[in-house]
Amino acid sequence: MRNWLLAAALALSTVPAAAHAGPYAPRDMSGVRHPEWTRDAVIYQINTRQFTPEGTFRAAEQQLPRLKSMGVDILWLMPIHPIGVKNRKGTLGSPYSVRDFRAVNPEFGTLADFQSFVRAAHGQGMKVIIDWVANHSAWDNPLVAQHPDWYERDWKGSFRPTPWWDWSDIIDFDYRREDLRQYMAQSMLYWIRTADIDGFRADVAAYVPLDFWEQVRADAEKIKPVFMLGEAQMRDLHHRAFDATYGWDWYKAVENIAKGRADATALFGYFSENESAWPTGAMRMVYTENHDENAWHGTAREVFGPALTNTIVLSFAGEGIPLIYNGQEAGNDKRLEFFEKDPIVWRDSPNRQLYTRLAALKTRNPALWNAPWGGRMVGVVNDRPQKIFSFVRRRGEDRVFAVFNFSGQPQTVRFTERLADGAYRDFDGGRAVTIDATTRMTLAPWTYRLLTTR
After folding, report:
1. What is the CATH classification number for the domain harbouring 246?
2. What is the end-to-end Cα distance of the chain in Å, rounded?
């Protein structure tokens, strides 16, 4: 076992609460230096095609003040590149079928439009990361003709899509080729230098050799601090390459609770592994929706039903870096078409206020900051563990006490240990609340109580 992994498994607490100098957090058990601006960051994913009626960078730029007012910090744009025509799916194709890694999809605008979007986001104090598809390209990417040896072959000697998946519109790269690695790495750095982006979300990150990502991270750091989000659930990706990876098991656990396939204790396994087996500084991205879940699995309302509000609140109050998928703040309840134009229908929704308030609380209370800055979750033992999920997070004198009724019946609960005792304000309404040995808390079905010292 590597020394860093052993240390992570034995770690019982987060780094000291002292302020950190410079643009980075201190090195933590992951070995990755997180940019300081990720400390309390909230991610917002933009599906440019569907984000506005126009589906362009210029139109999206007009929405930046609204996103800033919600407390969004990192904007993740789905792939911005031209889309392949050969073997295209649907009318417009998948953004993940890339025809040119150093160009902008004319559907979205021009390079100048994209550069303007990034400058405007920076002017609002937000960062921009772009989706990077390193694993494969479109069939008609010029690299296919120029460097056919850069691609994998099937048993017949033909180019092949990623095995087992129905990804017939793409073909896989062969990362045994050093010149391919150099081309792809330089293409990523091109966007940092040309458009001043702040990092990448790496599509199917685990399908690409880890040493490639580690080298790209090191090269990017020579230009500016970057944030790397990997589409994978693998702890080794955090050692030298990625700030954040997906919390797929978090999503599955809450879905199983919401659908009655499991009780509240289903979350114990995820958070136990998160604390005991993952590097202390690993950010795990948690979400109720993203482009894949929305298009292929179900909207957040379909998946979580009456548990949705609880799940949103848990994604901000628990450990993990939270994601908002565009349209969730408008209560979007439709599965957005993936290969066609299908704009979000924007409307007023209480979701926007909830997200705004949660993001503000995350910034205001250091106990809720992202790893490695925030407080570790510690379970608060209660007498209804199959129904009630409760925990405390603490950083210095700052605390949050969270209680969730993950059941369809009212629950009255008492807390059998004194960990949560103290004075708080209720997140909803600001009422003063004291927790002590006499406390009995009653929660309606699928509701929460979030108590905070700030």
Report:
1. 3.20.20.80
2. 41
Q: What is the pLDDT of residues 337-374, one digit of tens each?
A: 999 999 999 999 999 999 999 999 999 999 999 999 99
Q: Do 100 and 205 fall into the same domain? A: yes
**333 lies in the same domain as 397:** no
- The DSSP annotation for 373-417 comes to TSPPEEE--BS-TTTEEEEEEEETTEEEEEEEE-SSS-EEEEBSS
Q: 3-state DSSP call for residue 86? A: coil
Q: Could you tell me if 120 and 186 lie in one domain? A: yes
Q: Are residues 346 and 405 in the same domain?
A: no
Residue 262's domain comprises 3-374
pTM over 0.90: yes
Using an 8 Å Cβ cutoff, are 314 and 362 in contact?
Answer: no
Contact yes or no for 126/64 (Cβ under 8 A) = yes
What pLDDT shows up at residue 31? 77
* Predicted local confidence at residue 445, as pLDDT: 98
251 close to 267: Cβ distance less than 8 angstroms: no
